[in-house]
Amino acid sequence: MSYLQKIVQKAALLGLFILSISGVVSAQSSGVGTWPTQKPIRLIAVFPPGGSVDQVARILAPALQAELKQNVIVENIGGASGVIGTAAMTRADPDGYTFAVVFDTHGVNPILKDKLPYDTLKDIAPVTLIGTSPMVLVASKASGITSFKQLVEMSKTGKQFSYGSIGIGSLGHLAIARLAKQAGFDWNHIPYRGGGPLMQDALGGQVQLAIGSEFLVKPHVDSGGVIPLVITTDKRSSALPNVPTIAESGYPGFNAPAWWAVLAPGKTPPAIVNAMNQAVTKALKTPAVADKLKAQGIVIVAGNPEVLNNFIGKQIAVWGKFVIENNIKEAAQ
After folding, report:
1. What is the pLDDT at residue 136?
2. Which one is predicted more confidently, 91 or 326?
């Protein structure tokens, strides 16, 4: 059995685990006890300040705090494409006072990394899929690129371009790597430690192209700091209606949405996981959260833990296969 098959099998087993605990939650709806009255809730954003994970967490926190009637404190623990922050979450007491907001890298890390400091099956409990969004390929003004068509034509002549993403194995990296392979380009990937540093260099012209979630790049598009070229989902975004999709730009079938989710330590009581799921779902429906996320191109999904578990399983299967087939590896440390 290949490593990919093992990971996909784990995802299936995790689905069975979630199904089993959902029954327990139904039977023990009062099992939350005094939660969450004992102390503030720690919400770990697994990327540095300035990126979409940080911003999503900080938009969600006040509404979640109002819903739970308990302080919710956002803490940034970035590094290793979200692994360091996720590991910090798994090491916390599973008492319902530590959760994490993760990004799409969570679905690739089990394939990309030889060894994780946690067991994806045993040490993590899915809570809620917050939502999905297009990734947007943007050009710095200094690059001279003003359209995706121009970029393609110049690339076909053999001209080299460099593009930045939030890290090796991030969805942005994998989406552009897939596009480059499909189109026969040879672009140079520059990994960054987060969306904040990435956009700083894109605005300053230190990197020609950048790929990031619409949530991350739209403020800089609106300000005129960068030029949007194309989006990675199969349908145009209502937030950037004039930006074409990769699928309609000559590469049909292309679809690679970014996503955000809330996770808990694996041994967190199922009743608390369910209660947190319900709290996040209600918070996502409040205008203060829903309007802000929608304005930045995020389509809210929510749903129960099974929805998130199944979604992550599909992400692992699709992108894990691409990572293995194309021998994508982390840079040597």
Report:
1. 97
2. 91
pLDDT digits (tens, 9 = 90+) for 37-78: 989 999 999 999 988 999 999 999 999 999 999 999 999 999
| Closest C-alpha among 175, 17, 160 to residue 108 | 175
CA distances (Å), origin 319, targets 92, 162, 222, 225: 29, 22, 31, 31
Long-range CB pairs of 31-36 (<8 Å, 24+ gap) are: 31/269, 31/270, 31/271, 31/272, 32/96, 32/269, 32/271, 32/272, 32/275, 35/95, 35/96, 35/272, 35/275, 36/68, 36/69, 36/70, 36/96, 36/97
Domain assignment of residue 330, yes or no: no
Residue 106 lies in a domain: yes
Q: Which of 193, 215, 249 is the last residue of a domain?
A: 249
| Domain final residue pick, 249, 268, 288 | 249
Q: Residue 126: its pLDDT value, please?
A: 97
Domain span including residue 177 = 135-249
Residues 126 and 157 in one domain: no
CB atoms within 10 A of CB 248: 14
Distance CA 138, CA 232 (A): 12
CATH at residue 108: 3.40.190.150
Whether residue 128 is found in the same domain as residue 10: yes
Assess whether 16 and 120 both reside in one domain.
yes
Q: What's the pTM?
A: 0.84
pLDDT at 331: 59
pLDDT tens, position by position, 206-256: 999 999 999 899 999 999 999 999 999 999 998 899 999 999 999 999 999
Q: Say yes or no: 121 and 262 in one domain.
A: yes
